Amino acid sequence: MMDVDNENQEASEADISPEATGSVEGSTSDAPAARSAEESGAGAPAGRRRPKAKKKPLGGPMTREERNAERLEERRKKAIARRTERAAARTEHKLQEHEHEATAPRERRSGVQKTRQGVVVSDKAEKTITVRIDVARRHRRYGKVVRTSTTVHAHDESNDAHIGDTVVVREARPLSRTKRWRLIEVVARAK
After folding, report:
1. Is-contact 113 170, C-beta < 8 A?
2. Residues 133 and 87 in one domain
3. What is the three-class DSSP state of 134?
4. Total domain count, the chain
5. C-alpha distances in Å from residue 191, one per residue of 35, 130, 134, 162
6. Staple partner for 175: which of 56, 66, 136, 179, CB 3.0–4.6 Å?
7. What is the C-alpha to C-alpha distance for residues 81 and 78, in angstroms, rounded to an integer?
8. Of 46, 78, 102, which closes a domain?
């Protein structure tokens, strides 16, 4: 029985030609080149290349507890790396904010009334003007200039301002249901 198996094995080895194995007996200089080409994957088609596997430490199969401990250790290391990256990003962001604070045109301070410049769009009401305040600012993320406007009702005691005038208004206590601003001066008259 054993002799039959050995004969079958020898016959199958004899059927394999030297060209199929990639090495020719007697040409020893081509064998290392063929092996290096096979190892690098240069001879294999792109779809058949196998990714290099990570080398695992020797020592046999790991238990469930060992795998879990290894996984937790790896997660801990990644978390520490993320924390340091985020802390560096936060400090860089704070430095950029301080640069912007120096160039900010207006600051929010408690107890100080806001002053805005706008154009009168209506003066029909008695002692009241409607002022359009245009704001052009750069979008934080995208950098595009975004133009917006808001309208406020301002108290004009002497009915001095008219449609088209450029005026300066200041924040005030509530004077009516909609009036929270007061006319300070007329900067330019409409033509």
Report:
1. yes
2. no
3. strand
4. 2
5. 91, 18, 20, 11
6. 179
7. 5
8. 102
Is the pTM higher than 0.85? The answer reads: no
Residue 25 tokens read as: 């007996």
Q: Give the highest mean pLDDT range of 40-54, 67-81, 105-119.
A: 67-81
**Has residue 91 been placed in a domain?**
yes
- Virtual CA dihedral for 63, 66, 68, 70, nearest 10 degrees? -140
Question: Do 85 and 129 fall into the same domain?
Answer: no
Query: Is the predicted pLDDT of residue 131 greater than 90, yes or no?
Result: yes
Q: How long, in residues, is the chain?
A: 191
Determine how many CB atoms are found less than 10 A away from the CB of residue 129: 27
* Cα separation, 176 vs 170, whole angstroms: 15
Distance CA 161, CA 121 (A): 10
Confidence of residue 75 (pLDDT cuts 50, 70, 90): very high
Strand partners, 168: 117, 185
Same domain, 161 and 124: yes
Name the H helices within the chain: 2-15, 18-21, 30-40, 64-103
In a domain, 17, yes or no: no
